[in-house]
Amino acid sequence: METVREPLISVRDFSLWGSSVRLLNRLTLDVEPNEILGIIGPAGSGKTSFLRCLNRLNDLVPGYRSEGEILFDGRTILGPDVNVVELRRKQGMVFATPVPLPRSIFENVVFGARLSGVRGRRTLLDLAEESLLRAGLWDEVRERLYESALNLSGGQQQRLCIARILALKPEVILLDEPTSGLDPISTHKIEESLRKLRAAYTIILVTNNVKQAARVADRTAFFLSGELVEIGPTAKVFTAPDDPKTNDYISGRFG
Amino acid sequence: MTRLERNDRLIRLGLLMIAFSAVSILIVITLFIFSEGTPIMFKYGLRQFLLGLNWYPTEKSFGLLPMIVGSLFVTSGALLVGVPTGLACAVVLTQFASKRVARILKPVIELLAGIPSVVYGFIGIVVIVPFIRENLGGPGLSVLAASLVLGVMILPTVISISIDAFQALPPTYREGSIALGATVWQTTRMVLIPAARSGLIAAIILGMGRAIGETMAVIMIAGNAAAIPGSPLAPVRTLTSNIALEMGYASGEHREALFATGVILFVIIMVLNTLANWTSSRRRRGF
Amino acid sequence: MGLSPRLEQKAAQVVLWTFTLATVFILLFIVIFILRKGLPMLSLEFLSSNPEDMGRAGGIFSTIVGTLALTLMAVLIAAPLGVGTAIFLTEYTWEGRLTRIIRFGAECLAGIPSILFGLFGFILFVTKLKLGWSILSGGLTLSFMILPTIIRTSEEAIRSVPASYREVSASLGSTKWQMVTRVVLPSAMPGIATGIILSIGRSISETAAVIFTAGSALRIPTSIFSSSRTMAVHFYILAREGISMPHAYGTAAVLVVTILMINIVSYYLMNKFIRRYS
C-alpha cells in the first residue's frame, strides 16, 4: 500500500527538445522524499537529459527548450524567476566520470560550500569531515587532506565527488551512472553509502546497470526513447512488470 | 529578474565593452592615420605620390615610386630567400623529423622569432654588408643585403603558419597515401602540399606582410637611397624606411607627406592581410 | 621520371635538411656572434651605471629602467584588456557576428607593422594629446601592439580548460562569474602567463614604435611623463651612428640573453600547462 506523502519532486507533462530533436516526451512522475528512485533504460532513452533538467544543468548548453512543469517542494523550478544557483545547491549532482578539481582533497570537498559563502577554517574543516564520513571516504583520506585530489583512485574520486555535494547540505542527490567506470569493490562501497544516505536525503540514481537498480532502488522507473514506460516498486517492476517492453529490457532482450 | 541575473548582466556588459577595445583601437588607428595622411594626397594628387619618381620633400616633390618599387624588390627578394627555406623547415618538422628532433627544432624557430629586428640589422651591417661589398661589389648596402636579412626574419612566420597548415590536414591523408606504398616524400609532394595549398599560400602572404612592414633592419642595411635600384647590389629605400628616416625632423607638409606614406603602407598591409584571411578561410570551408 | 621513389626521397631529404640545418645554423650564428663579442662587456658596472658621453662610455642602467618601465606599463594596460576580451569571447557569448567582428579587429591589429604604430602613437599621444615623448605615450602604444597576442593566447588557454570543470562548478551552485574566477582562470593561468611573457619579449625588442613615442632621452626617467630610451633603441642608435662598437655589442648581448631567458621560461610554462591536461 502506498503511503500518502507530498512528493518532493513532481514532473507533469514534461517534454524537452535539444537542437530541434525531441529528447523527452510528456513525462509525468513523482519523486517521494527519502526514497532511492532508480532510472533504467537503454542508451539514448533520455535518462541523463531528464536528470539534468532537475538541476537545470541543461541551461549551460544553448539550444534546449522545454514544455510542461517540474515542481520541487511545491514550487516550479522552470522559468526566469527561479534562483538557479540555489536550486543547484539543493540538488547535488554526481557525474558518470568523477571530476575532481585540480586542488587538494580538502579544497574539493568544501568548494561548493565556499561558493555559497561558508567561511572560517574550523567550520570548513568540520564540514569536510562530516561530508567525507557520510560519503564513506573519511578513513582513507583523513591523513592526507591537503594532497592533490588527482592522486586518488577512481572509486575514491567518485566518493569525493559525493562528499563534495554533501557539504552543500542538499535535499536531493542526483547520480548519473556513478559507478559505470569503477571496479566492483568501489561500486559496492558507493551503493552501501547510498543506502545509508537515504535516511537524510532523496536519491535519484540513473544507471545502465539493471542489476544495480535491483540492488539499491526502492522504486524503479523505466525510460525508453524519451518516454516513461513504467514506474513502481522495484520488486514489482523486476518480477511482474506491467509493460512487456520493461520485461524485455530487464531480461536483456534489447539494450 | 533575480539579483543574480542582474549582476551577471552587468558583468557581461563590462566584459563586452572590454572586448571591443581591440576593435575600437583599430578604428582609432585607421582614422588617425588616414586623417593625417590623405589631405596632402588630395592636394598634390594621388598620381604624384604613387607614380612620381622624385622624392624631394622640402621642395614639394613627393614621388613615392622609388620607395614603392624598393619595397617590392626587397620583399620579393625576402620571399625568394624565406619561402623555400621556410617550407622546407615546415616539411621537415612535420613529416621527417623524429619527435625528439622536433622538440629541439621548434624552440629554435621560436627563438629566431624573438630576436629583435635591430639585432638582425646589426648582424647585417657587420657581416652581410661587408661580405657583399668585398665579394660582389657595390656599396654592400643593397637590395641583396636587405633581401637576405629579411628572408631570415620572415622564416618564423612562414614556418609556423605552414606547420599549422600541414597539421590541420586529416591524418588519413598521410596514412592512406603511405598505406598505398608511397614514400613520405611522394606523399608530401603529391598529396599533402596540394591539400594544404591555401594554408601555405596564407603563410606566404603573411610572410610578405611581415617583410613589407619591417623597418629597423632595413634602414640599417639597405642604403636608403631614394632612387629606383638598378641592380640587386644597388642601395634602396622602402616605404617603411622613408617614414622612419625622416620622421624625426620633418615638419609641415614634409611631415604630412610621411603620413601619406603611412596611408599607402597601411592600405597595402590591409589588402595583404585580408587576402591571407580569405585564402585560409577558403581552406576551412572545404577543398 | 628516372629516379626511383626511394632515391628521389633521399635526394629530397638532403635538400630539405640542408635548408633546415641552415636555419638552425643561422640562429646559432646570430646568438653566438652577439654573445661572443658582447658578453665580455657585461659586468655589474655595465648594468648599473648610466651611459656617459652619448653612450661611448659608462653602462646601460637608464635604458634598463626605461625598458622595464615601458614594458610594465604596456602589460598593465594590455593584460586586463586582453584577458577580459578572451573571457568574454569564450564564456559570455556564443559564436556569431559579434565574435567575428571582435576577432577580426584583433587580427587586423596584429597585422599592423610597428612603424605605423609608431606613427599613430606619435600623432595621437605625443602630439594631439600633448603627452610628449614619454613613457606614457610609449607604454600606451606598446600595449596596443601586444593586445592581439594576449587575446589569442588567453583565449586558447581558456578554451582548453575541460568542459567538465565548468559543469561541476555550475552543478555546485556557482554563478558564472564564480565559475570563471575560481575554476576556469586558475586552470588557464599557465597558458595566459605564457602569452603575457611572450608579449613582454616583444615589448623589449620593439624599436620603431618606441623611438617615436618614448623618445631617446639618456637620463633615468623620473616619471611616466619623462622621455626614456629603451635598450633596443639605445642599441640602434649606438650601432647606426657608430658611436661605440663594444657598447653596442654589450647592449645586444643583454637583449639576446633576456630574450633567451624569456623563451626558456615560457617554454617551461607551456609544457607544464600541456602536461596538466594530457
Total number of beta strands of chain B:
2
What's the level 1 CATH class of the largest domain in chain C? Mainly Alpha
State the helical fraction of chain C: over 70%
The radius of gyration computed from the alpha-carbon positions of chain B, rounded to a whole number of angstroms, is 23 Å
Helix run count of chain B: 14
Distance between the amino and carboxyl termini of chain B:
48 Å
- Category from helices, strands and their pairing of chain B: mainly alpha
CATH class of the largest domain in chain B: Mainly Alpha
Mean pLDDT of chain C: 88
Instruction: Describe the largest sheet of chain B.
Output: 2 strands, antiparallel
Helix content of chain B: over 70%
What distance lies between the first and last C-alpha atoms of chain C, to the nearest angstrom? 45 Å
**Domains of chain C (count):** 2
Give an overview of the whole structure:
Chain A is of the alpha/beta class. Chain A is built from ten helices and ten strands. In chain A, strands 6-7-8-3-9-10 form a six-stranded mixed beta sheet, sandwiched between helices. In chain A, helix 4 packs across helix 6 and helix 6 (154-166) packs parallel to helix 7 (184-197). The mean pLDDT of chain A is 89. By secondary structure, chain B is an all-alpha fold. Chain B folds into two domains: 3-44; 46-285, MetI-like (MetI-like fold). Chain B is 78% helix and 1% strand. Chain B has 14 helices and two strands; from the N terminus they run H-H-H-E-E-H-H-H-H-H-H-H-H-H-H-H. In chain B, a hairpin with a 4-residue loop joins strand 1 (55-56) and strand 2 (61-62). Chain C is 76% helix and 1% strand. Chain C has helices at residues 5-38, 44-48, 61-91, 97-111, 114-128, 135-159, 163-171, 176-205, 208-211, 231-240, 245-276; strands at residues 51-52, 57-58. Chain C has 278 residues and is an all-alpha fold. Chains in contact: A-B, A-C, B-C. At the B-C interface, helix 1, helix 2, helix 4, helix 5 and helix 6 of B face helix 1, helix 3, helix 4, helix 5 and helix 6 of C.
